[in-house]
C-alpha cells in the first residue's frame, strides 16, 4: 500500500529543503510548481483558457505564455489573480492527481510537494500532510534576508498565505525548521526510518 505524503509549508519555511531529502532518498516527487508550468505550455488547454479570458496579449510571439504580462496583471489586481487561479485549478488538479497515481505504481511512498495544499483543498488527495514549520517572526526574517525585502514587504508576502500556525495545527507530521538545515534533514530521515 502506497502512502501519499503531502508536503507543504509557507514562504521561506524550508519546504524545498525537506522535499530534497525525500528526493535524494529515491522517492518520487510530484512537484505542483513544475506541473503549474506544464499546464500552460504552448498547445495546452490551460494556455488556451488564459488567452480566451485575458486576451492574445498574454502570448509571446512564439506562442508561449507571456509570464511578464500575466504577472503584471494578476499581481496588481486581486480579482484578476483569483480569476486566473479558478481558471487553472481544474487543469492543475487533473495533472497533479494523474502524476500522483502514476508515481504510486513505482514506490511505497510518494511525496506531493504542494505549497498551497490547504488553500487549494489538496489534503483530500493525500494520506497524510507534513508541514515544514517555523514561527511567522522567523519567516519574516528569513524572507527579508533571502529575497532582500523590507520588513513591510516580507510581512505582506507572509500574510498573503494561510497562517503557518493554522497549517501546523492541521498537520499529521510537523518538521520543525527553527534550527539548522542539517537538523531539518535529520528530522526527515528519522521520519523515514520510523515509517519503515
Automatic annotation (TrEMBL):
Keywords in UniProt for this one?
Answer: ATP-binding, Coenzyme A biosynthesis, Cytoplasm, Kinase, Nucleotide-binding, Transferase
Q: In which residues is ATP bound? A: 12-17
What sections of the sequence does the record tag as coiled-coil? none
GO CC terms in record: cytoplasm
Cite the GO molecular-function annotations of the record. ATP binding; dephospho-CoA kinase activity
Coarse class of the primary localization is cytoplasm
- One Pfam annotation reads CoaE
Query: Under which pathway is this protein filed?
Result: Cofactor biosynthesis; coenzyme A biosynthesis; CoA from (R)-pantothenate: step 5/5
Q: Does the keyword Nucleotide-binding apply?
A: yes
Question: For this protein, what reaction is catalysed?
Answer: 3'-dephospho-CoA + ATP = ADP + CoA + H(+)
Enzyme Commission numbers on file: 2.7.1.24
Where found? Answer: Cytoplasm
Q: Which GO terms describe its biological process?
A: coenzyme A biosynthetic process
- Role summary: Catalyzes the phosphorylation of the 3'-hydroxyl group of dephosphocoenzyme A to form coenzyme A.
Q: Which family does it belong to?
A: Belongs to the CoaE family.
This one is known as Dephospho-CoA kinase
Native species of this protein?
Candidatus Enterococcus clewellii
High-level lineage: Bacteria, Bacillati, Bacillota, Bacilli, Lactobacillales
